């Protein structure tokens, strides 16, 4: 019995000594954030440079996205152009089905003829500025050969960006029921769906890699060849300067509208503000059916909410040390965080980032990414597209946990 008591006391001693391994420091309370009633099924506003989310509503809910799909489609077209696989001057001829779709006012707004060819550049502009569905599908066919192959490219791309459960069935964003069978994959009534988190990750990748896209999305007019003349079409983004929902001081320069019966009226916008760039996401804006501006008013509500209630503060200066778990990390550059006005920056807490977001610091000559842990809405679930899996070499050396388990196995 005495021997058992000795062993029991030894076990309890080891357990008590290992407690610090399993516990963590208490998480600091998040900052008090002003409330916002956003008239949409889901929404978000985040800092494109840092990935910090300033506000979100139902960010993980998968919803139909309509032509917001084209952000992924046109990213892949842009990539194909930059990689030299296709050229802006290449000519593309629509199939009869693609041309026929442009005669339906419910599905298109730029006429395309099956006996004519169009430059990649003209189709690219039409897909961005006025959301031409047939133009997007023609470009998808040019890049991948078939619509099905292109959709598989889309799926692979977003999966590589960490989005594992995207529902992507076609390149345009229409419901599959509006398309011919060779224009989509998946169920006959399938519709593309993503969450606000997903869209945020996608937009950050797209703008990080190809910020020049904004030169196209900021255009208020599309000039397109029709019947041997150039016809002018108006942008669908009514927040651009000179458009009916524009507000001075909020200089939107992108990005994409989305509309289907299932998706409702949605919009992804972007604008420079306070020496950074904000991205807004409004999915399924709520309001009267005949109100064609509700998604833009909801977007304005987001940016006014940030402007009125938050400050982009310099919270750490360059070459300053941060202490995390008794380790010192030195910053490379000034660190900025969006915080509610009158917040005390001394209340911020930091940790090592689990993805590629955050600010760069150095510890023991190694660079790491750090983030603030107690901002109210956190950061995008973002990772680099080129991250490679680490290959762990086999080793005969046992871990500390294996050694503890082995100790207990041999104790009694």
TrEMBL record:
It comes from Companilactobacillus futsaii. Substrate binds at residue 256. One of its GO terms (biological process) is cell wall organization. Keywords: Carboxypeptidase, Cell shape, Cell wall biogenesis/degradation, Hydrolase, Peptidoglycan synthesis, Protease, Signal. Residues 1-28 form the signal peptide. The lineage of its organism: Bacteria, Bacillati, Bacillota, Bacilli, Lactobacillales. InterPro entries: Beta-lactam/transpept-like, Peptidase_S11, Peptidase_S11_N. The keyword Electron transport does not apply. This is D-alanyl-D-alanine carboxypeptidase.
